[in-house]
Amino acid sequence: MTTLKDISNIEDIKIMVDTFYANVRKDNLLGPIFNDKLQNRWAEHLEKMYGFWQTILFDVRAYSGTPFPPHKQLPVEKTHFDRWIMLFNTTIDAQFAGPLTEEAKMRATNMAHMFNHKIDYFRNQDKAL
């Protein structure tokens, strides 16, 4: 049995992000949404995600911006976020283990729940107008 190492550097983040989004692209629920939105801009998106996770996990200011606005108009519901969390956790668990790995999973789960809540909030606000 191979012992998995913890996420410890930018190369690990790149492996995590690249593998996760390769799984997203192939997923029958999430793939069509991401592929339609990103089209030929996957490399740009992955670079942003490297910086995002480097900032989150290593407190290195490699990402600036607000991640929610680009997601606000996506045609997603709780089912999509549940799948996103499941894919993220299974992807990362197959590659890494340790405190930063657990931190990444917790942060991803919290972010997915927050995005889902905020999208629902904005949709309900739009309906009320």
UniProtKB/TrEMBL annotation:
Iron recorded as keyword: yes
Binding residues annotated for heme, in chain numbering: H71, H117
UniProt cross-references to CDD domains, sorted A to Z: TrHb3_P
An example Gene Ontology molecular-function term: oxygen binding
Highest taxon of source: Bacteria
InterPro entries: Globin-like_sf, Globin/Proto, Hemoglobin_trunc
UniProtKB keywords: Heme, Iron, Metal-binding, Transport
Full protein name: Globin
Species lineage: Bacteria, Pseudomonadati, Bacteroidota, Flavobacteriia, Flavobacteriales
